[in-house]
Structure formats: C-alpha cells, structure tokens
Amino acid sequence: MEREPRGAVAAGGENTAVMRNYPADSGGDSLAGEVMKTILVIDESALFREYLTTKLQEQGFEVIVGKDGLDGVVKMRSDPPDLIILDYHLSRKSSIELLKEKKENPNVCSIPVIMVASKIDRLKLVQAGKYDVKKFFMKPVRTDALFRAVSELLDVDVHVDTSPCIIEAHLNDDILFVEIARGLNAEKIELLRFRIAELLNLYEVQYPRVLLMMTDVELSDDDRAKFHTLLDTIIEYAGPYARHMKILTRSEFVTSFIAANPDYKMIEVTDNLNKAMDELLGLRPDDVAHDEVVRRKLLSTSEPRKTQEESFQLRFDEATVEESSESADGAERKSKRAVTVAVVDDDPIIRQLIVTVFGRTGWSILEFENGRTFVESLDGQKYDLVFLDIMMPEMNGFQVLKHIRGRDIHFPVIVLSALSQQEAVVTAMRMGVHSFLIKPFKPENLIRKTVEILNSNF
Questions:
Q1: In this predicted structure, what is the pLDDT of residue 373?
Q2: For the chain, what percentages of helix, strand and coil (3-state, to nearest 5) are there?
Q3: Mean pLDDT of the chain
Q4: What secondary structure does DSSP assign to 268-316, as a single string?
Q5: Biggest CA-to-CA distance, the chain
Q6: Peptide bond connecting 393 to the previous residue in cis, omega within 30 degrees of 0
Q7: Are 57 and 74 in contact (CB under 8 A)?
Q8: Domain 166-298, CATH class in plain words
Q9: How far is CA 230 from its chain centroid?
C-alpha cells in the first residue's frame, strides 16, 4: 500500500524553519539559495537518529549524524554545526571527552549543546554543565520540548502540529495495543511509527496483532489525511497480521471511512471489547478473555525481553493536569445529571488529592475515612463512581465489595492499592471492580482513568 507523501519545507529567510504539511500532489516550495542551520546529532540509537534526522530535515535544518563519540568528534571538527544534540552515553569516546575536546577547539567551542540521556546522576549533570550544555533532556524525550529548545538556541521558529491528542502504545502477548484519545496529531502519529519500531525491537516481535482503541475520539473530514497516515503506519508494522487488525470504536466516521476504502477492507471495526480480544487471542467467546483480570493484564504493559532503555515518549508537555481536567470537564458535560463520586480511603492525603483534582468539575465528591461509614451512606445516596481503598480499619475494601454485591447495588468501582497489594487487587477484580490505580498515582492518570470509566461504552 502506498503512503501519501508528506511535504515539509522551510520558508521565511535564513532564521526561519517552518514545517508545512501539503496535499499529496502539491510538492512544496524550494529552499534554493537559503542558508540552512546545521545540527549534528550524536547518538548510538539508530532509530533515535533516524527520527531526529527526519523531523529536523522537515523543519528545514541540515542534519549531520554521528554514530558514536569518535564519529561525532570527527564530524564536529570537519564540518562545524550550529547546534549539537548529544547523547550522554557514547562508546569509543565518551560524551565528556567529546565536550572537553570541543571546549579546547576555538573553531567549535562556542557551539551550543543539547544533551539527552536515559540515566544520569546529579554529579555527572553538573560535570556536563561546565561544557556549554544549554539544555538537558531525559530519555524518553518529549519531542515538543526538544524542538522548543532547538528553536530557542538557534533563534528560529519551529512549527509543529498542536492538535489535542493523546496516544499510548504498548505490547503484551505479541499484541500491539494503540489507544488514541481527544483527536489526531500529525507529529504524534509520525512519532508512533518510531515508537512501534522500538517496541517490536524491545519485545523481539517481528509482526504483532493489533488492537486500535479509539473510544473517545470524534473525527471529521478534516482528519482524513491524518487517519489515513495513522492506519498506514500501523499496517506497515503489522505485516501479515494486518488482515486481523481490529479497531475498537463507535465512531460513525471511522466505520464509514473503513467501509468506503478498499485498501482497509481487511480491518474489522467493532464496539465490543470482548469480541475483539477473543478474536485477537484466538479464544472461544466463553474463554478467559472475558475474565476482567485477564483483560486488564493484557491491556497493561508487559516486561520487554531486552533491557535497553526506551527513547521515544508519545506524550508531549501539553499533556498536563490542566489538559486532563478539561477532559474531565467534558465528561461531566456529557452527563445528563450531576456526577456524584465517593472517595473511601483512610488516608486523608489521598482523599484531599482526589477532591483537589476534580475541584473544577463541579462534581459532588463525598469523603469516607473507612468502609463502615461509606456503607451506612448507601441507604440514602447513589454514586456514579467510587474510589475504594483495600486496606482500611473497621471495614476493609473486600467487606465493602461483599456488602455491595449482597445488596445487588451497581456502580463502577476503582480500587486504590499499593504495589505490595497485587494479590488483593486480583481478588478485588474478580469481585466486580472495574479498574485500579497504584499508589502513589499522578493526577493526570487519576483523571484519565476516571474519564475512561465514566465514558466507557464497552
């Protein structure tokens, strides 16, 4: 299947690098006669080098690549760049040795440096800072922040797609799970290509089966080109398993798009998670894929077979608590009645965190310091969602769940647990709990999980 070409040019003079997405037949403009800024990328990850080279060239930069420390020094001396993006962990010549040589060479000593690293302690960071390292990023790098740093250091405008979009990707049991929320973003779709390649390498999977989950995405005709690129990106790596690809959604746009495009006739669109999981796993409809614990285990990230560090981060800096709060506001607006949430936890800090995170929504948040007081409230109060701690005095989470089941009361429950309570979580899931959060949890994860449960159609 041929991919639609994507054009990207620089325009506006020697101090401007602007990315433009053109229709397939437009081709873009010429850069002839303009002086391009040059960036030297020194990193031993071929995939990371390829990604940075692709993106920086799209922005109008000339890119030179150093495959290790020694190669980087040679390139730096022979063709001095305007900026160096340098990995801390290098072979043949260390990054610190490279920086020392750079400092002693009057032809390159003033070149600014952006350093990236998977692991580094404070002492090494201070050491690197002596050698004109202007910015430092931990891997996996948030690429929007990296490009902003490039823009600042080279005094150029770097424009990227800022469309709201959340993309998550992980592998489990040789199944590639891609989850998309809020919308489509061209930058993140291109980044997904490299993230999938990295996952397949880490897990030593040649071709994965694929489940694309788009349960909270509203698309329109303006998204056709992006959606086309998204599908082609995933199909490219699915190989022979592309004919078994599933899309979990209730979007009429997605359903009609797939039905109208013969190139995607092998993709099945469904709104039934059980059915999609059964077919991907090759199980009977009454087999273990219907077990909530099994599904949750599959829908989470498993341990990779290789120990190398990951380079790619699908989340950008704009994916903050404020963004997630807007999603929570949207969930509340979709509800035809007020949302009432119970927080049942003996830890006052946890209760206050949840109350604070959802403070903007206007929801009714009721706090309970133990299971007994919560159970007593059930006679006169209905809940749309309950956060339930497992280990509490007077009446623990298991006793609460048993009481709820005995009274045939139905509402979604999210269990709050510590990592040491794994067996307890499994038991709670078998008692009908909808999901769980591991303490300590980040506010954005709390909100995402809440929106997922309240907006769940499956």
A1: 93
A2: 40, 20, 40
A3: 78
A4: EEES-HHHHHHHHHT--TTSGGGSHHHHHHHTS----SS-PPP-B----
A5: 79
A6: no
A7: no
A8: alpha beta
A9: 15
- How is residue 430 written in tokens? 């078998």
**What is the average per-residue pLDDT within 265-272?**
91
Name which CATH class applies to 321-454.
Answer: alpha beta
Of 12-16, 240-244, 256-260, which range is least confident? 12-16
- Who's near 265: CB < 8 A, 6+ residues apart? 258
The conformational region for residue 33 under phi > 0 = left, psi -120 to 50 = alpha, else beta, is left
| pTM tops 0.70, yes or no | no
Task: Answer for the pair 398, 427: CB distance below 8 angstroms, yes or no.
Answer: yes
- CATH classification of 38-154, choosing from 3.40.50.2300, 3.40.50.720, 3.60.70.12, 3.65.10.10? 3.40.50.2300
The pLDDT of residue 56? 94
CA 213 to chain CA mean position, Å: 13
Strands lying side by side in the sheet with 113-117: 62-66, 38-42, 83-87, 113-117, 133-138
What does the alpha-carbon distance between residue 284 and residue 230 come to, in Å, rounded to a whole number? 30
Contact between 81 and 61 under an 8 Å Cβ cutoff? The reply is no
Pick the closest to residue 274 from 262, 283, 261 (CA basis).
Answer: 283
- 154-209 pLDDT per residue, tens: 999 888 888 888 888 888 878 898 988 888 999 999 999 998 998 998 889 999 99
Residue type, 380: G
Separation of alpha carbons 323 and 321, rounded Å: 5
Sign of torsion, CA 175 180 186 191?
A: negative
Domain ranges of the chain: 38-154, 166-298, 321-454
Helix intervals (H) in 335-370: 348-357
Q: Assess whether the region 166-298 and the region 321-454 belong to the same CATH fold.
A: no
Q: How far apart are CA 425 and CA 427, in angstroms?
A: 5
Q: Report the distance separating Cα 246 and Cα 270, nearest Å.
A: 7
Question: What gap in Å lies between CA 327 and CA 357, rounded to an integer?
Answer: 12
Asked if residues 246 and 279 have their Cβ atoms less than 8 Å apart, the reply is: yes
Q: How far apart are CA 100 and CA 130, in angstroms?
A: 9
Q: 237: number of CA atoms within 13 Å, CB side?
A: 27
Cβ(248)–Cβ(215) below 8 Å: yes
